[in-house]
Model the fold of this input.
Amino acid sequence: MRLGVPKEPDNETRVAIVPSSMKKLTKAGFEVFVEQGAGVKANYNDNQYEDAGAKIVSRKEALSCPNIICINFPGTDGISENSNVACVADPFRNPEYVKQCLSANISLMSMDMIPRRLSRAQSMDVNSSQDNLAGYKAVLLGASNVPKGIPMMTTSAGTVRPAKVVVMGSGVAGLQAIATAKRLGAVVYASDVRKSAAEQIESVGGRFIEVDGMDDFEDESGYAKPLTPEFIQKVNETVCGVAKDADIIITTARIFGRPAPITVPSDAVKTFKSGAVIVDMNADVGGNCQDTKVGEIHVTENGVIIVGTSNLPGTIANTASMLYSNNLTTFIT
Done:
């Protein structure tokens, strides 16, 4: 069985399969063809792939394989009929990808569609593996941009109070953000529309922000349900009230297949203190902060720093690629 691994687009630093996965793939009967330079941005060079048993080929050869593994949807040009393509297609936001594959008679397996709560599929859950890293990196970005120290420090020159971090949304990314901020020494407050998240928040060192009238807005897949505009406003007001004096605000709210909900409106940003940092983890799907600029870090008139960096897992490409590769290797073997 031939397996092709094409190089990702220029704006993607990750690679779908890493050399450490070759042993398992070879044992399963796969002959792996990796496009030249596919792993360079993630610090996996062609020699490592060859030493592990893969063949380094042109893009045309990689796409000619009947099984193709990638991160971003590669298009249908150069892919033969009856081929299988496994990637993160985000089909609800990109229905044209599904139509292209139907027209070309290609089987598209979008890895972001794997149910998070299906226990036997958890080792294939690319959303969780990548979100976990994104939550970690979001806190590091916040810490690197905030103009103060994070932990409490007692020195001969005086005592430095710990930074206050507010995490909005406590799914996989949010919980990792809470845990990371706590390890850095911050005092962490967190919210979620799923009442069941309270115990999880507290288990990683956060303090749960409860909203009056809160129910458990969670669907059977473990994702947050869409909320009524009235309740969204109530949540925003409560959480943004807690965030008024926060040093770092991390927004993680993402609704499956829909634009990201606005959890930090412009009016709230105006009430935040100068020097506060908002890290919007969903800049690529509309953003949780109304003032986010995709791919940019900018400062508002009142001195709030808004980080709109997209593809956070791609900023830790080596580790993100390894985890994605493990997910995909488990899936196809």
Notes: Residues 284 and 310 are 6 Å apart (CA to CA).
